[in-house]
Design brief:
single chain, mainly alpha, 3 helices, 2 strands
């Protein structure tokens, strides 16, 4: 699996989706990624995972990872159809009557975060 457009100068995959001031130029959305590299990487991950977990049933979104661009969102939905996976992303939350809860803990000490 080559996927050069998804790797940094050291050969590691970019580990963040969006810009982070503490890790400049290490975000996936910062680079000129190509969908063909993304396709190769995801296919390899699916095939390997199905070898170890044959009952795999869904693709879930983590922090916008399946929908950070319209192209990626469409691509993931197509992959879910091909593998007969359920797609668990922000759109499917509405379809499945799932709601998310978030909290703003900025500036609050640990004791107040419970």
């Amino acid at each position: 699996m080559d996927c050069r457009s998804l790797r940094n100068d050291l050969g590691s995959f970019f580990f963040m989706l969006f810009h982070n001031i503490n890790n400049p130029k290490q975000a996936f959305t910062y680079i000129n990624w190509r969908i063909d590299g993304y396709k190769v990487a995801l296919k390899a991950q699916n095939e390997m995972t199905l070898n170890y977990i044959p009952r795999l049933s869904h693709i879930s979104e983590l922090m916008g990872s399946t929908g950070f661009t319209p192209v990626i969102k469409t691509f993931f939905k197509r992959v879910a159809e091909i593998y007969h996976f359920k797609m668990l992303d922000s759109d499917s939350q509405i379809d499945n009557h799932v709601t998310c809860t978030s909290f703003d803990f900025r500036g609050k000490p640990t004791e107040e975060r419970n």
